[in-house]
Amino acid sequence: MGTFLVLPNIEVMATHCSYLSPQYREVQLQEAFLSWEEEPSFLAAAAWFADGQHPMEKLPALGGMVVELAEDEAAALAQTMGGRALILRNRAIGIIPAEQTLRGSRETLEDGDLWHLEALGLKQARQQGYSFTGAGVRVAVMDTGIDGNHPELRGKVIESYDLTVTPCEPVAAEDTDIHGHGTHVAALIAGDRVGVAPGAALINALTARQSRADLAGLLSALEQVATLTPGVNILNISLGQPTQSLDQATDDFFDAVFQRLTRIGILPIAAIGNSGRDITCSPGNCRSVISVGAVERTGGAALRVWSSSSSGQVLYGRTLHDVPSLVAPGHMIYSASPGQGYIGYSGTSMAAPLVSGVAALILEEYQKNLTFDEAREELLRRCQKLPLEGDRRQGAGLIQVLPFAPAS
């Protein structure tokens, strides 16, 4: 017996209510439930398990299921479905590892430690009277946990769940992050000093205890995030699997799952990976994800794409899809470490939460009356092209807090 993921082929259509706002979430979920139940492929898969002989977790928001099957049963199901479902054996997936490129930790920050905020134009925007802080926006951080007692994050973590168990269990935020990655990421979103959107509310979605998870756990965690009440606006995710270790069916699985999340009003933002050119990670590869690469300082204020930042092209159907979508500071970034201090890491995992922070500012500015497509276009509109960098390395360019106005 083994654990398999079954995702019937379902056409995901944008609806009039697929806004990134929790006030629509109940209607969005009901539409999703009804559409899955009416799809022939979903009904065929459900009928196959109607005898109740197989341990199963149903995932109604995503239109899928996690089930225990023998190898011959999985083959028989695939034959029955005739290409109308993605049927995958469970496999490991991990946090995209960040590099500790700065020695040791600090109790306090020093001059220059906040260069990432200056590179985003946040300081300049504040000087011009820009007052948005991400207030009222809920960001789920799917990671190793968050130390909610860190001075940067006190009062920011409004809910905390252990998603490594089913059903998910509420936990105390200060007890969850035994790794440190999630706390670093969370503070870059909403930290008082190091964060972009200090007014945003964080949901601690512990998904990768000790930095490891698997596809079944990830799918279950996404289902639980999708159905939280009130709903999540933005999902920040630094889990990833390099394309070279994935088959096309697994990449297609990621793409289908995240497309379904956007239908119910969630904006997914993901790190693209730290393996350099032509090696990218899913779910960052997905078409319905804002994929984020990393930039570094070269001296003074000059910036370039970090040499380890992943980039490339991904084939879905007959269409080549360039990743990353955009870039943000990700090299030698100081942020919160569990406890009281700060530590410096490098990685696209550091760049992604900065984009999540900017997205939170945008959603507050637009009172969350944006669809996924509208929010994506607004993010891309706020990007500044870096000179001497090809589009496949930087996507739309370096994200800025304010829309970029080219020099005339």
Would you give an account of this structure?
The chain is of the alpha/beta class. The chain has two domains: 2-92, Alpha-Beta Plaits (2-Layer Sandwich), CATH 3.30.70; 94-399, 3-Layer(aba) Sandwich (Rossmann fold). It is built from eleven helices and 24 strands. It has helices spanning 25-38, 40-48, 71-81, 115-119, 122-127, 181-190, 215-226, 248-263, 348-365, 372-381, 391-394, and strands at 2-8, 56-59, 64-69, 85-89, 92-95, 105-106, 138-143, 157-162, 169-170, 201-206, 212-214, 234-237, 239-242, 267-271, 281-282, 290-299, 302-305, 312-316, 319-323, 326-329, 333-336, 342-345, 383-384, 398-399. The strands form six sheets. Strands 7, 8, 9, 10, 12, 14, 16, 17 and 20 form a nine-stranded mixed beta sheet that branches. The radius of gyration is 20 Å and the shape is globular. The N and C termini lie far apart (65 Å). The mean pLDDT is 88.
Q: What Rg is obtained from the alpha carbons, in whole angstroms?
A: 20 Å
Structural class: alpha/beta
Look at the structure and give the mean pLDDT: 88
For the largest beta-sheet, the strand count, sense and barrel status come to: 9 strands, mixed
- Find the CATH superfamily of the largest domain: Peptidase S8/S53 domain
> For the terminal residues, how far apart are their CA atoms?
65 Å
Low-confidence stretches: none
* Top-tier CATH class of the largest domain: Alpha Beta
| Strands, count | 24
What general outline do the C-alpha atoms trace?
A: globular
CATH topology of the largest domain: Rossmann fold
Helix content: 25-40%
- Strand proportion, as a percent range, falls in 25-35%
Our count of helices gives 11
- Please, how many domains? 2
* Name of the CATH architecture of the largest domain: 3-Layer(aba) Sandwich
